[in-house]
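I hope you will forgive my troubling you with a question about protein structure. I set the record out below, with my sincere thanks for your time.
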Amino acid sequence: MVKLNFSRELRLLTPEHFKYVFQEPLRSSAPEITILARKNNLTHPRLGLTVAKKHLKRAHDRNRIKRLCRESFRLLQHSLPNYDFVIVAKAGIGKLDNPTLTQTLDKLWQRHIRLSKKFSSN
């Protein structure tokens, strides 16, 4: 049976992990959100989140975005490539309702799946 948990090993935890992704990322973007990715040497993908106070003043708004991003990653983790992903929230993300944000994330994840296949075949 496939486990759909979101354990500690699936998270980017240190500033070094984030820096590694920011150095040479593959990008997929929507106006409100960007997913950066970089290949890791592990057997599973990992996720990091950046949701700035600049874009969402209230903690509960930032938490909603992070919760939806984690859930989207959790459900797709077994179809994602072995990359480190950083989701960067941009201006206007607070205006998206939950279904629209989930739909946007799904499109961006699918783009990363296609990109990884393209780069692994080269």
The domain at 8-114 is CATH 3.30.230.10 (Ribosomal Protein S5; domain 2). The mean pLDDT is 92.
